Amino acid sequence: MTNPASATAGAGRASVVAARHLARWLALAATPTFAIMAVLTSVIGGPADMPCGAGQGSLLGGMVPMYLLMSAFHSAAWLRWIAERRRG
Q1: Secondary structure of the chain in the HEC alphabet?
Q2: pLDDT in tens, the chain (88 residues)
Q3: Contact (CB, 8 A) for 28 and 71
Q4: CB 5 within 8 A of CB 34
Q5: pTM higher than 0.70
Q6: How far is CA 11 from the centre of its chain?
Q7: 71 within 8 A of 35, measured Cβ to Cβ
Q8: Where do the domains of the chain lie?
């Protein structure tokens, strides 16, 4: 017969492993998602992008640079994944 406490601990470990696996895939999804948003925003553009960069005169103004920066900041998950694949 199994101890209910050990069964609960096993289920807790399984949920932690599942949560880590999900978090890893979400981290991998962030970079291409922001890159696609940058491309779509630059192609489609529109009035929503105008208030963000209007009158600032900065290269970092607007939504496209913001999406590109967010894509770059979230690329650590991809770099980690590539390094793990190379190690074998």
Answers
A1: CCCHHHHHHHHHHHHHHHHHHHHHHHHHHHHHHHHHHHHHHHHHCCCCCHHHHCCCCCCCCCHHHHHHHHHHHCCHHHHHHHHHHHHC
A2: 455 555 455 668 889 999 999 998 998 999 999 999 999 988 887 555 555 555 555 656 788 888 999 999 999 999 999 999 999 7
A3: no
A4: no
A5: no
A6: 27
A7: yes
A8: 27-87
